Fold this protein.
Amino acid sequence: MSSRPWYQRRPAELRREQLAVLNTWLRREVRPFNPFWAGRLQGVGVKLTSVDQLNTMMVATEAALAGAGGPGNPALLLSPTEDQFKRHTTRSELVAAAREAAGGGRDGRRNAIWYRYKPVHIHEAGVARLVAIAYTRADLDRLHLAGARLAEVMGWGAEDSLLNLVPAGPSVRYWGLYHAALATRMSALHPRVGTEPVAGAARRGMAVLPASVLAVPTAEAEEALEVLAAGSRLPNLRLVVPVGQPPAAALRTRLAELGARVAGREVRVQAAWAPEISRVLYGEAPVATGDPPDATYGFLTYPDLELVSVRDPGHLTNRDEGQAGELVVTSLGWRGTVVIRAATGSWVGGMEHAGVHPVTKATVPRIAPAAVDGAWQPRVSLGGRSRRVDLRGAARVVRRARERWITQGVELADWSLRVVDSKLVLALAFGAAHRGEDSALGEEGSGPGGEPMRPGDVEVARLVRDLGDTVGAEPEVWFNTRRAAARPQVGDAGVA
């Protein structure tokens, strides 16, 4: 057993531990106890020699997970029969279960299995569809461990006190904070329920508990601090924790300024975030003394609790270290709801596996501090109703059209698919009609090299129809160079 803290262990050591846990979990629990995942794992080797082999498995989309087996997606649960449990569990686990069931007959044996696999706590997840994430009693112990790690990463101690303005509800973001406070033995107040305005909850909360740590949804953090800054000074405040989509640099600076007005001294800003399909909540470690208020070195992950990677949803390929893309999550070794290679819909600015955190010297993988929830699933207005579409397959559709058009002598120079005024808009820009001419295009799509050659109406209509079938809504087409060049190219986050 390593004597190093969990966040400073050697990467090779962590990878070995991940591989051992992954192989045991897949062989003894997932494959024998869950037909849904056993089917999806058919293309993966029975015994992995590298964690990266799991990346050969197709990602599990929200559409595949939501409602699998009925309401609450029960098909994702580990649900062993008594015979399956006897045949596949470890000897030590079997002996422990036998002791628990002794003298209880059939009910005793059932209860011993239920203790290990029956869901007792559920979170809601999903962007466009509802996915239930169930926790067993053992899973709650792991959630508590993740909470302790979050507090350790962020530098909370028993002497701190937490005012949590994240609304109470079935979310990993709320319960992650709850367990972080409980594990640290800090005083905590969770006063906000439902749709209560953040201003009232902030005033009432600080009147009850003049906290040193303020956790608040990112979109409401500025409002909460402005309300507190307008009242009396609260000298205990030392840390503001935006929860959810991480704040941009300008907002971080603004929150630090408002926090300083509330406390009458320097207040740091450290974000907490995870896609809601995740089992754990990640946090940013403190930065170095003298760093600017917008400084951050990313979110520390817990590699023995979750496997996280980044993929390019446009090309269905895994990203290299540091490249932006969609976060993919595997809840390593958890029971209850099984999540393997789940596409979260969250865009992140990349991951760092080999670097060392400059302050904490942490060696665990870090997620870049830039993230966007539901980046490829924007809301659009269709027939007077608002609904979400899924743009992650759009790049493949456009790529096929581009290849067809090349054979027709048409060059698609650039494109983008984004929501403009609640409408899904496909912007297209075409190259010059003849090779060698100046293909610089103006706003309306013409240029000094002559009118660019475009595909015929039938081809454009085919592209619109194919996109509609893939993303869930047919876009409006604009032949507009500036719009086509706008980035991000797809939705609210770029795919390089």
About this structure: The CA atoms of residues 190 and 431 lie 57 Å apart. The two ends are 41 Å apart (CA to CA). The mean pLDDT is 91. The longest strand covers residues 412-420.
